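Quick one from the shared queue. A colleague (R.T.) flagged Phytoene/squalene synthase family protein as missing a structural entry in our internal table.

Convert sequence to structure tokens.
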Amino acid sequence: MDLQDAYQQCEEIIKHHSKTFYRAFSLLPKAKKQAVWAVYAFCRHVDDIVDEGNHPVKELQVFKEEFNRFLIGEYNSNDPKWVALQDVFSRYKMNTKAFQDMIIGQEMDIQDRVYETVEDVLDYSYHVASTVGLMLLPILAPKSANKLENQAIYLGYAMQLTNILRDVGEDLNRNRVYIPMEILEKHGYTLTQLKKHEVNESFVKVWEEVADLAEDYYEKSLEMMDLYPIHSKTPVKGAALLYRAILSQVRKESYNVFTQKNYVTSEAKDSILASM
């Protein structure tokens, strides 16, 4: 497969599945932008195995073996994600462990796991979201990647907590609850109420406590932005601010996270990016 065709297919994947990330990282120079598309396509494929696969345990095991072969130079040259990713690995000093940890995170979604504490949720968030930031650091800030690892982890925490707060209803439909049990119990809100989609004062307190945690991690993630090269600083900060705006949108919609997917409009995104 032609390399540019592979990158084009990876771009179509992110354009379809994440308009926020696509919008933010489109600001990068072409080579770095394409590298981000390739990493996203890898992550999306793993996510789809778990969420859409008929036999996710078996399919994920096959994918792990496929990735291990990729690492020693053996891959399907007709598969765009591998063709594009091979080019990325040849250009940048990629963090292989982050890719492997991300697969471990997706395995967590196959298990019937109850998230008792905030630490449990942060551990999950590291594996499914912070790892993506660690994958991208060698592309976005090759000279400062080691120094920025904590900030990448914090941004992953913030974004995944935002996902959890936005997707409560969608996750329930998959029999998943990511809000920590300790926070539900603290505010006297039960799993039964959650499954009945009850939005009351207790639910708002639960939601806002998790949102406060997300906001704190957004702040921490932006503390060392000056270490990013100029061409990467705006996309990374833009991605953080665009994602953070989802929290405000949920509040505007009176915390309806059960029957609708809250998103930031294109006009609002334009305004956020223009104000940076």
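The chain is about 70% helix and 0% strand.
The mean pLDDT is 95.
Added to the table.
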